[in-house]
Write a structure and sequence with these properties.
This protein is of the alpha+beta class. It has helices spanning 17-32, 70-133, 180-191, 193-203, 208-214, 216-227, 337-342, 344-355, 357-375; strands spanning 134-138, 156-159, 164-168, 173-175, 229-239, 242-247, 250-251, 255-258, 262-266, 277-281, 286-287, 291-294, 303-307, 315-320, 324-334. Among the domains are: 181-211, no CATH class; 215-340, Cupredoxins -  blue copper proteins (Immunoglobulin-like); 345-375.
C-alpha cells in the first residue's frame, strides 16, 4: 500500500519532458512506498499507516520487530488488565467492607466505652453505698460515715473493743450479737443445760417449783430459824402525813427478835436518806449492844446489823435518831426454841432418854400393872 502519487496531465500533443519526468518520479515514489506481501525491499514505512477509517481484516498474526505477536500480547495484557481491574474492584469492595466493619467496630467500641463508663459509674455508686453501710473496724462508735456524712440507718461496723458487730438504729448504736460478758453467761447457761432440763421437768406436769415458791415465806422463816441470820429491807413511807419505817414492805410493824440471832437491816434505799435507824432498851435509853452501823442511810451498801444477845438487856424499840419514836415501833424478844433443843446439854439428855427407852418402857409396864392391881383391891 502506498501513498497515492500525484501526476500531471499531459497536454495535447507531445507532453513535455518535464511533466513526463515529474510523473515518473511521482510513480517511483509511490512504488517505493508500497508494502509488498512477499517482504521484498523496500517494504518499509516512514510514516503512519492511515486506513482512513477502514478495518484491517484477514490478518493471521501481527508481530513486532522482535517477532512477538502483538495482538495476542495485547489480548493477554487486556485480560490481565481486566483481571487487575476485577481484583481492584474486589479489593475496593473488600476495602469498603473493611471500612464499613471498621466503622461498625468503632461504633461498637464507642458503645462499649459508654457502657464501661456507665458500669464504672454504677460500680462507684455501689461501692459508695456499701461504704456508707459498712464502716469497717473501729474502736469506738463513729458519729459520721466514712465520707464524713450523716450516718445511715442500718449502718454497720465492727467494734474492736468487744469484738462485736454494731448497727445504727437511726439514733444510737446497738450491739448485733452478744457481748463478751453476755457470751460468757450464755456459755454458763449452756453448761447447765442438764440442770435446766431437770428444772423444766419440775415445772411440768406437777409444777413442784410453783409449790415451793408458794411456800417461800415459810421456807425463809425456817431458814432464819436454822441459820440465825435474817436480812430485812428498810424503806421510809408516808403514812397519814407521817414518815415511818417499813420493814419488807410492812409499815412500822411491831417486831419480834430471837435471842442469839443476827439481823441485818438494809438501809441503802434512797427514801431512808436522813432517817438513821437505831434501837432503844425498855428504859428508853439508846441500845448499842451488838449493833454495827455500816455506811450512811440512803447510800449504796448501807446497813445496820444487830446481834441479839441470849441474856441481859434486850432491845425494846426501833426509831429514827432524827425524827424520834413516831417512825418506829416496839421490839419483843423470844428464846430460840430450836437453839434450845439443839443445845449440846439438851441433845445429850435426849440421847440418854433414847438409849434407855427399853428400860423406861419396861418400868412403865410394871408400874401400870401394880397400879391396876391396887385399883382392883389386889
Amino acid at each position: 500500500m502506498a501513498k497515492r502519487p500525484t501526476v500531471s496531465s499531459i497536454t495535447t500533443g507531445h507532453a513535455s519532458i518535464t511533466a513526463l519526468n515529474a510523473n515518473f518520479t511521482a510513480l517511483k515514489e509511490g512504488f517505493d512506498n508500497t508494502l509488498s506481501r512477499d517482504g521484498s525491499s523496500p517494504n518499509t514505512m516512514s510514516a503512519d499507516l492511515d486506513l482512513n477509517g477502514n478495518d484491517i481484516t484477514n490478518v493471521a498474526t501481527i508481530t513486532n520487530a522482535s517477532g512477538v505477536d502483538v495482538v495476542a500480547a495485547a489480548a493477554a495484557s487486556a485480560t490481565a488488565a481486566a483481571a487487575s481491574q476485577t481484583a481492584a474492584a474486589s479489593s475496593a469492595t473488600a476495602a469498603s467492607s473493611s471500612q464499613t466493619a471498621a466503622a461498625s467496630s468503632a461504633t461498637g467500641a464507642a458503645s462499649s466505652a459508654t457502657g464501661a463508663a456507665s458500669s464504672a459509674t454504677a460500680a462507684a455508686a455501689s461501692l459508695d453505698t456499701f461504704d456508707d453501710r459498712f464502716l469497717g473496724a473501729k474502736s469506738s462508735n463513729p458519729s459520721v460515715d466514712n465520707d464524713g456524712d450523716a450516718l445511715a440507718t442500718g449502718a454497720l461496723y465492727f467494734h474492736t473493743g468487744d469484738n462485736n458487730m454494731r448497727v445504727y438504729n437511726g439514733s444510737a448504736w446497738q450491739a448485733v450479737g452478744p457481748t463478751t460478758t453476755e457470751q460468757t453467761n450464755i456459755n454458763t447457761v449452756a453448761a447447765a443445760d442438764a440442770n435446766i432440763t431437770t428444772v423444766v421437768g419440775q415445772i411440768t406436769p406437777t409444777n413442784n417449783i410453783q409449790t415451793v415458791a408458794q411456800n417461800a415465806s415459810t421456807l425463809n422463816s425456817l431458814n432464819a430459824m436454822f441459820t440465825a441470820v435474817e436480812n430485812i429491807a428498810v424503806t421510809v413511807v408516808n403514812d397519814g402525813g407521817t414518815n415511818k419505817f417499813a420493814f419488807n414492805g410492812a409499815t412500822a410493824p411491831a417486831i419480834t427478835l430471837v435471842k442469839g440471832f443476827t439481823y441485818t437491816f438494809d438501809v441503802s434505799a434512797s427514801s431512808v436518806s436522813s432517817h438513821p435507824l437505831a434501837f432503844k432498851d425498855s428504859g428508853g435509853s439508846a441500845y448499842t449492844t451488838g449493833v454495827t452501823v455500816n455506811g450512811t442511810a440512803g447510800s449504796s451498801g448501807a446497813n445496820v446489823v444487830i446481834a441479839v444477845p441470849t441474856t441481859g438487856t434486850m432491845p425494846a424499840r426501833y426509831y429514827c435518831t432524827t425524827h424520834g419514836n413516831a417512825m418506829g415501833n416496839t421490839i419483843a424478844t423470844q428464846t430460840n426454841d430450836i437453839a434450845t433443843v439443839a443445845d449440846s446439854t439438851t441433845i445429850n439428855n435426849i440421847n440418854t432418854v433414847v438409849n434407855n427407852l427399853s428400860t423406861i418402857s419396861t418400868k412403865a409396864t410394871l408400874d401400870d400393872a401394880t397400879a391396876l392391881a391396887i385399883a382392883l383391891g389386889g
